[in-house]
Amino acid sequence: MEQSLILRPNGLVKAKQSVSLAEKNDLSGLMDFDDPSMTFRERIMAVETRLLELPQVEIPIEHHFGAGIYARTMIAPRGTVLTGKIYKVPQMIILNAGEITVRSEPFNGRIRGPHIYNSPAGAKRFGYCHTEVVWTCLTSVKSTDVESAEKEIYAETYEELEKYLNADNMILVEV
Fold first, then answer.
1. pLDDT (tens digit, 9 = 90+) per residue, 17-42?
2. pLDDT in tens, 73-96
């Protein structure tokens, strides 16, 4: 049996053994994520806060730069529950291999690699890895080193994201 996680934004975090949860097509079996009293952004930040209270899995990131593109590839083990950064810029996502359920403002669903999709600026994702997952995120950057590229593409908070988007006259597009 694999370990899965039940998360509720109201603060309940309970680990339990269950294979059936991994077979669901969405995260409803993993968490009460659709609380209508909270925005998606509030829910994902609440989930991330709870996840940070649990033992962490080290997921190495492979970095590549070329032709103005920054590629980040991770290999996440089966059963991993994770959240990503807040992106200030659009990205191209490549699920090279594996199967993952993803929740974000623009995209919700279970996907199986190989699969490619575009994600708009402002995206922050939550995921559950049904299998080992090889995930690559491509962004356009001016930087040629990881530290500078991360400053260029990530916002630490949604408030920082909004300031960035407003300063650059960018708008979030609903998908």
1. 222 333 344 444 445 556 677 888 88
2. 999 999 888 889 999 999 999 999
The distance between the two most distant Cα atoms of the chain, rounded to a whole number of Å, is 49
For residue 103, which of 32, 153, 3 has the smallest C-alpha distance?
Answer: 32
Q: Alpha carbon of 125 to those of 112, 157, 168: distances in Å?
A: 16, 14, 23
Tokens 């659009």, residue located: 90
User: For residues 9 and 50, what is the distance between their CA atoms, to the nearest angstrom?
Assistant: 8
Q: How many CB atoms lie within 10 A of CB 163?
A: 13
User: Rounded to an integer, what distance in angstroms lies between the CA atom of residue 170 and that of residue 95?
Assistant: 27
Collect all residues with Cβ–Cβ distance below 8 Å to 99 and sequence separation of at least 6: 110, 111, 112, 113, 129, 130, 131, 133
Domains and CATH numbers, the chain: 3-51 (no CATH), 61-167 (2.60.120.10)
Cβ neighbors of 90 (< 8 A, separation 6 or more) are 118, 119, 120, 121, 139
Q: Return the amino acid letter for 154.
A: Y
The answer to whether 107 and 116 have CB atoms below 8 angstroms apart is no
Within 10 Å of residue 58's Cβ, how many Cβ atoms?
Answer: 4
